[in-house]
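hiii so um. not sure if this is the right channel but i have a protein structure encoded as tokens and i wanna go backwards to a sequence. like what aa goes where. can anyone help
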């Protein structure tokens, strides 16, 4: 039996008329996506051209996959991919569970004032720009009178000050640690909201059965927020190639710290250097499109695995 298309259209407009205020609220977000996300997508054509700024898109020479081949064969390719994956996976492995742990800890705090104080202290770094954060980090890890060196010297763990910010051995740890400290509080908001949505009667029943607070966390709280955790984990896997840009730029002094660039150069910073600094627009676009393609593959793969395991998924 064929569906009545006219009735479907009529019901759609009836629902739209009833929800006009909600539709109006999401209109700015839709316009933002259309203008800044979907509109610029036609610019990926540059990756298949030898783009000339004066000739424009339609008159520039088409070169096919030449820039992709150049990128894959470049001597920096494997170093950049290694740095991108290592930094991203470290951020995912450490930065993803950190807000969950903080949310679980905050949920166990009984004192309302103390709980609000801790929440405020952990939320604040998210709203501080990386320019300020980087200045704070450089001050903390300074060779002369840096708090970290002074502390380690005082307790006898080191004999001489260490130049932390100019050592490739410590850059990943400082970068990931700073990111976790900056975002842990803000990231915990979603998980705290999910915990609040759990039925309190479950905790009461568990307490009557003699379950300790630890057992309630593992049998009620974590399973209760598991769908939210899985959704954010899928998004995190899809976002794994976004190793960072602003944080790396600031902690390498706008990519001028050549000593640590061997471990700091990632896809985003490489695209910036090739496209903006070296004006190789087509080459940089090809590298960026390759990153986007890999991100889509990882996102679809993570979502498919979640569905196969019978868990929550994005679609």
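sure thing!! here u go:
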């Amino acid at each position: 039996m064929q569906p009545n298309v006219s009735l479907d259209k009529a019901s759609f407009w009836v629902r739209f008329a009833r929800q006009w205020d909600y539709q109006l609220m999401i209109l700015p977000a839709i316009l933002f996506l259309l203008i800044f996300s979907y509109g610029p997508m036609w610019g990926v054509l540059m990756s298949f051209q030898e783009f000339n700024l004066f000739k424009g898109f339609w008159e520039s020479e088409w070169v096919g996959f030449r820039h992709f081949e150049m990128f894959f064969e470049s001597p920096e390719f494997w170093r950049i991919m290694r740095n991108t994956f290592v930094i991203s996976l470290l951020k995912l492995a450490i930065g993803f569970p950190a807000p969950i742990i903080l949310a679980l800890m905050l949920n166990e705090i009984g004192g309302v004032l103390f709980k609000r104080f801790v929440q405020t202290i952990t939320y604040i770094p998210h709203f501080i720009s990386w320019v300020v954060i980087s200045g704070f980090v450089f001050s903390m890890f300074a060779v002369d009178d840096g708090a970290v060196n002074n502390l380690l010297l005082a307790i006898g763990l080191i004999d001489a000050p260490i130049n932390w910010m100019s050592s490739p051995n410590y850059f990943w740890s400082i970068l990931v640690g700073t990111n976790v400290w900056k975002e842990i509080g803000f990231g915990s908001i979603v998980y705290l909201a999910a915990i609040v949505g759990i039925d309190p009667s479950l905790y009461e029943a568990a307490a009557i059965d003699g379950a300790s607070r630890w057992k309630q966390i593992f049998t009620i709280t974590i399973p209760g927020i598991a769908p939210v955790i899985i959704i954010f984990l899928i998004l995190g896997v899809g976002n794994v190639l976004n190793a960072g840009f602003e944080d790396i730029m600031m902690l390498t002094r706008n990519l001028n710290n050549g000593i640590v660039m061997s471990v700091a150069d990632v896809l985003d910073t490489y695209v910036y250097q090739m496209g903006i600094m070296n004006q190789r627009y087509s080459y940089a676009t090809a590298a960026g499109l390759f990153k986007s393609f890999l991100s889509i593959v990882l996102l679809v793969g993570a979502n498919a695995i979640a569905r196969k395991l019978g868990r929550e998924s994005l679609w």
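oh and DSSP finds 15 helices and two strands in the chain.
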